[in-house]
Amino acid sequence: MAEEVKVKTCGVRETKKLGAILAPFLSPGDLLILRGPLGAGKTTFTQGLGEGLEAERPIISPTFTLAREVKVKFKGGREGLLIHVDAWRLKAQGGDIFEEFEALGIEDDFEGNSALVVAEWGDGVAEALSDRILYVDFARDPEKESERLISFTPKGFRALGDFKKKAEEVFGNSVD
Amino acid sequence: MVLKVLGIESSCDETAAAVSRGEGGKREILSNAVASSMDFHARFGGVIPEIASRAHLEAFAPLVEKALSSALLSLSDLDAIAVSSGPGLAGCLAVGTSGAKGLALGSKKPLFEVNHVVAHLAASEGEFGPIPDGSVGLVVSGGHTTLFEIEKFPGRLRVAGSTLDDAAGECFDKIGRLLGLPYPAGAAIDALAKKGDPFAIKVPQGLRGQKDRLFDFSFSGVKTSVARTVEKMREEGRPIPVEDICASLAESVSEVLSRKAVAACLAFGSGVLVVGGGFSANSQLREKLKAKTEEAGIELRIPSLSLCTDNGAMVSLLGLDLLRSGASPSPMDASIDSSMPLDLSSF
């Protein structure tokens, strides 16, 4: 089992950069579940992932359409999709994520195992999508306006290799 | 020549059908029927695609009949049928486009699949007439915030800027959720804002004055800032001044939208600003747009509230423009595009 990683970022640029640093460690079929309050940096972090994965168009909020697909390049140049989901409404409704993917017309892309799914507010509903889950928790510091504590907790996820080392190189030692 | 077009809209939660009539530079909306599945969605704080698709399916045929009968027309009297085929929710778009194709095939009328966001601009034509060449367009809603440079409507438009994160309406909905207001939060925030102090709380204006992003928007920082303010007050056990928060939020968002829209008009040498989309029903935005365009000597074309939110008239008006411009009808195998691009390539 891979270990937990904790990183402190300061400002939108750093939160984005952390996403870009994680990007090369991700593969199609992976599921990232982002948790944290409104405005904690979940979409910003996903924008960084998009940059790191050379997304063909910018990542913007998926809230209105529930999910947005964007073409990306995974490590080694393998082409695939990033499916960016806002699961808040599904959670409120207790809905079935597979049914909603079907209604949105994105089930085939996901079942073809060519997509990385990043689900905001996804805990409790998105887990059904994959056995390889990486939880990413965002916490705001009430005292410091731009600071965020971002923790990565793997569940059935492979080891993240040098991710911890790389993140520490950029953001200093993680706090435990 | 007098032309009559049926327009069908089903990209999100509203199912709508309308007939418009055009003769030369004159436009008239003959009927405008709308059914919304919003009552279902309100319970869940947002649109549920599956529920919306089913609601569209049930509403489609009765609405088309209503639009035709209110216009005192039958299918055979029409010159064309237009339908939104994107951007929007795939399952919802599929209902409208399939239905429209069926009607077009059955009645042997040409079909025009149109861009929903561009149709929001066409809505103004129902009250102001055709959009002049060289106008600037602003579409602002729960899903979109985009500025267009219009060379010639509807064939030649260019996206001058758009939101880099949340749409303006979405920012209101999310803050509404935080404040415990009903979904969608636009109307509630609008009403509360009228009673509050717009300068009580500091709310940032995303990308204001950023030179390389002159016509782009960002509302993510607005959301974060308001969320922090509210959380802090809650932690300190202070009462939440909901009216002041709504007023300050509306002030910030309407200021940046109207400022950038007018700046675009000045930059592109445009004398007309066309506005559309559900968020343009917001009264603070309407007031600011009015004041700023008057000051700059720009004509403001912002339609009545019923033409701001999703409706069929805007689709029929855009269909009329396409028919008049001699555009080729869409092939019957044309597919929907839930993330249809907004640039000129859309036609």
Question: What topology emerges from the helices and strands here?
Answer:
The complex is a heterodimer of chains A (176) and B (347).
Chain A lengths: L4 E6 L1 H11 L8 E5 L6 H11 L14 E7 L5 E8 L1 H6 L3 H8 L2 H5 L3 E6 L12 E8 L6 E9 L7 H9 L5
Parallel strand pairs in A: 2-5, 2-6, 4-5
Antiparallel strand pairs in A: 1-7, 3-4, 6-7
Helix pairs in contact in A: 1-2, 1-6
Chain B lengths: L2 E7 L4 E10 L2 E11 L1 H5 L6 H22 L9 E7 L3 H18 L3 E5 H7 L2 H4 L7 E5 L4 E8 L3 E7 L5 H11 L7 H8 L26 H16 L6 H26 L4 E5 L6 H14 L2 E3 L3 H4 L3 H13 L23
Provide a quick synopsis of the model.
The complex is a heterodimer of chains A (176) and B (347). By secondary structure, chain A is an alpha/beta fold.
Report on the structure:
The complex is a heterodimer of chains A (176) and B (347). The model of chain A has no long low-confidence stretch (mean pLDDT 86). With 176 residues, chain A is an alpha/beta fold. Helix content of chain A is 28%, strand content 28%. Chain A has helices spanning 12-22, 42-52, 88-93, 97-104, 107-111, 163-171; strands spanning 5-10, 31-35, 67-73, 79-86, 115-120, 133-140, 147-155. Chain A has a 7-stranded mixed β-sheet. Chain A is built from 6 helices and 7 strands; from the N terminus they run βαβαββαααβββα. Chain A has a single domain (5-170), classed as P-loop containing nucleotide triphosphate hydrolases (Rossmann fold, 3-Layer(aba) Sandwich), CATH 3.40.50.300. Chain B has 2 domains: 3-123 and 311-346, 2-Layer Sandwich (Nucleotidyltransferase, domain 5); 136-305, ATPase, nucleotide binding domain (Nucleotidyltransferase, domain 5, 2-Layer Sandwich). In chain B, 43% of the residues lie in helices and 20% in strands. Chain B is built from 12 helices and 10 strands. In chain B, the strands form 2 sheets. Chain B has a 5-stranded mixed β-sheet with strand order 3-2-1-4-5, with helices on both faces. A 5-stranded mixed β-sheet of chain B has the order 8-7-6-9-10, with helices on both faces. In chain B, strand 1 (3-9) and strand 2 (14-23) form a beta hairpin. Chain A binds chain B through residues 12, 37-40, 43-44, 47, 58, 60-61, 63-66, 68-69, 88-89, 92-93, 95, 99-100, 103-106, 140, 142, 145, and chain B through 44-50, 53, 87-91, 94, 142-143, 163-167, 170, 173-175, 177-178, 220-221, 223-228, 231-232, 235, 338-339.
